[in-house]
Specification:
Rna Polymerase Sigma Factor, Chain: A
């Protein structure tokens, strides 16, 4: 390709934005037909437009139209994606598969010790404070729901939770 034809080609292609505006719907249609998946098709079209931008100097208007050149790029990229999929097929996860336990044994042991200390500290709380903390954290109830369940004002529930958590912090040696 001569310099004059390269300059001609560049002007025929225009900018990537103008190419995208003019041909992206057709390109997406071609890729979607080949791939059958909108997400994959969008990715292929994006890659093809990037390739067109990088290879715009190779475009020769005497060999065909911009539309044909661009849609051929899209089609070839889509076929490559299908071939890649066939080489590395995606396996669906087996619902019955039970992965090996990869838990950290020392961390689990420390967690169990902490849980035992927390349970011990909970039993040292006054019954009113223990009840509201259990309802809030173990049962997931809101302050309003706890107040209704225990027939006490919401402010009392909040106060008992705050006092109970303060006592738990002290018992567990957790700094404020």
């Amino acid at each position: 390709m001569t310099t004059a034809s390269a300059e001609q080609s560049g002007s025929d292609l225009g900018t990537v934005e103008s190419l995208y505006g003019e041909y992206h719907r057709q390109a997406l249609g071609v890729a979607l037909r080949v791939l059958g998946n909108m997400g994959d098709a969008e990715e292929v079209v994006q890659e093809a437009f990037l390739a067109a931008w990088r290879a715009s100097h190779t475009f020769d208007a005497s060999r065909g139209s911009t539309r044909t050149w661009l849609l051929t790029l899209v089609r070839n990229r889509a076929i490559d994606a299908v071939r890649m999929r066939m080489r590395r097929p995606v396996q669906p996860l087996d619902d019955t598969f039970d992965p090996p336990d990869s838990s950290d044994v020392p961390l689990q042991a420390a967690s169990n010790v902490d849980a035992a200390r927390a349970a011990e500290a909970m039993h040292l709380l006054p019954p009113e404070q223990r009840a509201v903390i259990e309802l809030a954290y173990a049962s997931g109830l809101s302050h309003t729901e706890i107040a209704a369940k225990l027939s006490v004002p919401v402010g009392t529930v909040k106060g008992r939770i705050r006092l109970g958590l303060d006592r738990l912090r002290l018992a567990l040696g957790v700094p404020r």
